[in-house]
Design brief:
By secondary structure, the protein is of the alpha+beta class. It folds into two domains: 112 residues, Beta-Lactamase, CATH 3.30.450.20; 117 residues, Arc Repressor Mutant, subunit A (Orthogonal Bundle). It contains nine helices and five strands, in the order ββαβββαααααααα. The radius of gyration is 19 Å and the shape is globular.
């Protein structure tokens, strides 16, 4: 099979993006599987980098992962990522696999991999852990959870045990996971023009608007008001906003 036909394998897979990047981080190839409408980056044939599509803090993390794969020569498997693309109103949890790309002499010349929405995969990933008992609550109703200690009690674990489960499966602390679930909820609510940023902060479980703005910028890379501006403009352009 030639290098040109290899990525075509992924077009038949459900909701999978296959990508190749060169050493500088520029996309060489993108192929989208069935049902994947492309909220996560460039369309096929577009020459760009992650910095053209994502807020800087997210693109920085992606670039660091790419460099880690290229420098070590080892793959990065089942990396859980919270990805936000305001220009396409895309918000969500995804699982990424990355592998080094070598030329015929064995020199690493880039990275390739797949990105796939988590969807039901979280349940599979946590299936063999006691943390799986509280996973649905974190994903579906993060604003109702007051603390990690509350989650640990619900799972029948100590906070340290819960932390070990989350680090092993998701690569992050339960506190960070919960915070990002709240941010995801906030991103969705910011698309409702009638809601103020203060009301979104309160509905998303934050004690005040300044704490919300700080955590939102830390996770998404831009202020809530700027996210709303970009996302609403994208929805209007696509005719997806009521009254547009």
């Amino acid at each position: 099979m030639s290098p040109e036909t290899f990525p075509l394998l992924f077009q038949g897979l459900e909701k999978v993006i296959f990508f190749i990047k060169d050493r500088s981080g520029r996309f060489v190839m993108i192929r989208r599987g069935a049902g994947m409408q492309g909220p996560l980056g460039p369309d096929a044939g577009v020459t760009s980098t992650d910095y053209d599509w994502y807020p800087r803090c997210i693109a920085d993390r992606m670039r660091a992962d790419d460099l880690r794969v290229m420098e070590s020569g080892q793959p990065r498997l089942n990396v859980v990522e919270f990805l936000v693309n305001p220009a396409r109103c895309a918000i969500g949890w995804h699982v990424t696999q990355k592998f080094p790309v070598r030329n015929r002499r064995g020199r690493i010349i880039g990275v390739m991999g797949t990105v796939q929405p988590c969807d039901g995969r979280f349940q599979t990933m946590f299936a063999d852990t006691r943390a799986g008992a509280i996973l649905d609550r974190v994903l579906r109703a993060p604003t109702t959870i007051r603390s990690v200690a509350e989650l640990a009690r619900a799972a029948g674990l100590s906070t340290k045990q819960l932390g070990r489960h989350f680090h092993r499966v998701a690569g992050m602390a339960p506190r960070e996971f919960l915070m990002l679930c709240r941010i995801k909820h906030a991103c969705e609510q910011l698309l409702v023009p009638a809601k103020t940023v203060a009301s979104v902060a309160q509905e998303s479980g934050f004690c005040d608007q300044s704490a919300f703005a700080y955590q939102f910028r830390r996770a998404v890379g831009i202020a809530p008001t700027e996210y709303r501006r970009r996302a609403v403009a994208a929805m209007r352009a696509a005719g997806r906003l009521q009254g547009s």
